[in-house]
Amino acid sequence: xxxxxxxxxxxxxxxxxxxxxxxxxxxxxxxxxxxxxxxxxxxxxxxxxxxxxxxxxxxxxxxxxxxxxxxxxxxxxxxxxxxxxxxxxxxxxxxxxxxxxxxxxxxxxxxxxxxxxxxxxxxxxxxxxxxxxxxxxxxxxxxxxxxxxxxxxxxxxxxxxxxxxxxxxxxxxxxxxxxxxxxxxxxxxxxxxxxxxxxxxxxxxxxxxxxxxxxxxxxxxxxxxxxxxxxxxxxxxxxxxxxxxxxxxxxxxxxxxxxxxxxxxxxxxxxxxxxxxxxxxxxxxxxxxxxxxxxxxxxxxxxxxxxxxxxxxxxxxxxxxxxxxxxxxxxxxxxxxxxxxxxxxxxxxxxxxxxxxxxxxxxxxxxxxxxxxxxxxxxx
Length: 380
Description:
CATH class: Mainly Alpha
CATH architecture: Orthogonal Bundle
Number of helices: 16
Shape: globular
């Protein structure tokens, strides 16, 4: 029986990619206007602004995890470097109030420099060893900021971060931060997409598939990996600086190991090696907890009565953070089972996940051959 949705799916796949890009950009531009028109709570505008920060992080990590195949579990450390740089240079804590552009440039450059320093001793490692070392680096960075009280104020954090001033435009409202972040995301995605389509991007993909073969094809593996780490670190540092401006307060609890895990989940869920996948994965994982919270504490009680599932409502309201990672885990497990290549996978990853190995096909044919009668019972 023919699936009636098949022609629709085929038509969507045949549509030019630029149509999806324009539609997504228009939707992103219109989204905060719903709050201005009174059709949406300010809460969702804040969620959308935070989601754009995670989109930047996911796009940056995708360079390392998706394009190059390096499992980096300390990525949030570069985010912390950018955030603390902005907080220290633009807050009453040490009496500095530097220019916005100078701070963004310094935060990005400093995060890239830290990524460069990390690359030297770690990029010769592979697999689990690289993951363990980068995990330790992330924790060391957080503990350093936590204990460096003379500069970072330790666990007390840095409050009162001045809002950015961009050519006389004081960015101090949620909608203004949203559009600032949206512009940065568009620029970062365009830059990463161009690099991905270049010779450098192909070298990263070659290393991911087979490092030995890539080396024999004149790809300098250490140099290519270092470039991926440095570029992704710069994107994380930029995201951290804007995040600090938006929050107007930071402390070490924003940069726990769990945040690195969440960004990794975003890349895996969306589709490793896919920029649209990283964006969709970030949007889904960052908005899902709030959607679940609003569903059980507001939307369903409003429709079915305030006493709807009182135990569940209380758990959602008081202990939801305990269940959030359980929800993330279930989503990732379901994705691995039903769609291992991700929501919007890279074409190469899709072929890898669904292509049959010719050696396995030949082995199957041999097993299905009836030697007594001298003919094949089944062709596969």
